[in-house]
Design brief:
CATH architecture of the largest domain: Alpha-beta prism
Largest sheet: 5 strands, mixed
Shape: globular
Strand order of the largest sheet: 16-17-15-2-24
Strand content: 25-35%
CATH superfamily of the largest domain: Enolpyruvate transferase domain
Structural class: alpha/beta
Number of domains: 2
Bound molecules: shikimate-3-phosphate
Number of helices: 14
Low-confidence stretches: none
Radius of gyration: 21 Å
Length: 431
């Protein structure tokens, strides 16, 4: 499917974005192995989170929809999962395969987990290696570097692991394995990554320490996790297209309600503010363990900056959009330390450069990011998302900021994280 995007004359309105994908995955995985029943309000019903639910169902998980986006989860307890009768399909979702691999390593049965072509080309050694050190028995294609993964679960031991690259998926896989291990598991991260797993586990009664220094520690479950009901905040990654569109557009004013502003996720707000964006937050509320705010954004004159270090992990999924912001900003923007972008749903360094260049942008592809010269006048063209939801949304925003018509191919990929994206774009952009 393709979508045509025309120049937005103005960009205005109020919206609530798609719910947080990372929190939704964790809410169903952790509640499935907890004791009790949980109600999850505003569950993110995109393809990735639905893949997690369908894998958990094959493992014995019990879920019931109560309307559009409210989900009841019946906890099975920490020993309640059973051997799946067929291959678990994580589809396009890195979070599904990596978190479940950590959990399945500790279960007393065999599981096979696979995904679509994109997922089966993404690196899995990052979880297979530390889980193997914990005593797990995992094999996969290419010597255990690629899915499908065959996991023969069993007893695990706690380890002290220094992650070579910042990854919340790896950290979370090890935390899930650590719940079942013999002894303490300590995970050190090179930069702080999203801590949704830690917050939720702590709320459910797990014995863990986090948020003080670079190490997260977890001790094995003494009893059971307690199921917790929660309302999932809006995903800042789904707010990000609108933050960039409003900041870069000369006639824009929008309000986004109920966005999760956990500080491990707000790199995009910090980067845009450094670039001169006019962003204001009204907040103070917590939904479960997560802080939430309403975000107000208005037109501004952006200027180029350097984005590197800890800011990268805090804005990892927003970097293609920040590259677009760089194309429209005055001066040079450099994004570095972001080699991880090359192993996302697409090689996002390459696909971002290809898409933005087709629209007339002036930017260089680097091994660990981009060098961008702005401001550039973008003009409409035919571009492709390469099946990557974040690319589809970035290119749609670029199209709305370009002169003339832009056609985004493989536009359906937005359904992975933001099924209503095209409807929201149409509603907020005044022609
Ligand atoms: C995610 C972590 C990030 C992010 C992905 C979701 C998560 O991946 O890019 O979209 O839910 O834990 P890495 O942990 O591989 O960086």
């Amino acid at each position: 499917m393709q979508q045509t995007v025309t120049t937005a004359k103005a960009f205005r309105g109020t919206l609530g974005v798609s719910a947080n994908k990372s929190i939704s995955h964790r809410a169903v995985i952790l509640n499935a192995i907890a004791q009790g029943e949980a109600i999850i309000e505003d569950f993110q019903r995109g393809a990735d989170c639905l893949a997690t639910i369908s894998c958990l169902r094959r493992l014995g998980g019990s879920f019931r929809w109560r309307g559009e986006s409210e989900l009841a989860v019946k906890g099975l307890g920490s020993r309640g999962l059973h051997e799946p009768a067929s291959v678990l399909d994580a589809r396009n979702s890195g979070t599904t395969i990596r978190l479940l691999a950590g959990l399945l390593s500790a279960q007393p049965f065999l599981s096979v987990i696979s995904g679509d072509a994109s997922l089966n080309a993404r690196p899995m050694a990052r979880i297979v290696e530390p889980l193997t050190q914990m005593g797990a028995d995992i094999s996969g294609r290419d010597g255990g570097r690629l899915a499908p993964l065959v996991i023969r679960g069993g007893s695990l031991r706690g380890i002290h692991y220094r992650m070579p690259a910042a990854s919340a998926q790896v950290k979370s896989a090890l935390l899930l394995a650590g719940l079942y291990a013999d002894g303490e598991t300590v995970i050190e991260e090179p930069a702080p990554t999203r801590d949704h797993t830690e917050r939720m586990l702590a709320n459910m009664g797990a014995d863990l320490q986090f948020g003080e220094g670079p190490a997260v520690r977890i001790r094995p479950l003494a009893g059971e996790l307690t199921a917790i009901s929660l309302r999932v905040p809006g995903d800042i990654s789904s707010a990000a297209p609108w933050l960039v569109l409003a900041s870069a557009h000369p006639d824009a004013e929008i309000q986004i309600a109920g966005v999760g502003v956990n500080q491990t996720r707000t790199g995009i707000l910090d980067c845009l503010t450094l670039m001169g964006a006019d962003i204001r937050l009204e907040g103070g509320e917590f939904w479960g363990a997560e802080p939430v705010a309403n975000i107000f954004v208005r037109s501004s004159q952006l200027r180029g900056i350097t984005i590197d270090g800890d800011l990268i992990a805090r804005s990892i999924d927003e970097l293609p959009l920040l590259a677009l912001a760089g194309c429209l900003a005055q001066g040079e923007t450099i994004i570095k330390d972001a080699a991880e972008l090359a192993v996302k749903e697409s090689n996002r360094i390459r696909t971002t450069v290809e898409g933005l260049r087709a629209l007339g942008a002036n930017l260089e592809e680097r091994q660990d990011g981009f060098r961008i010269w702005g401001p550039q006048k973008l003009r409409g063209a035919v571009v492709s998302s390469h099946g990557d939801h974040r690319l589809a949304m970035m290119l749609a925003v670029a199209g709305a900021l370009s002169q003339g018509e832009t056609v985004v191919r493989q536009a359906e990929s937005v359904s992975v994280s933001y099924p209503r994206f095209w409807l929201d774009l149409e509603r907020l952009c005044l022609a």
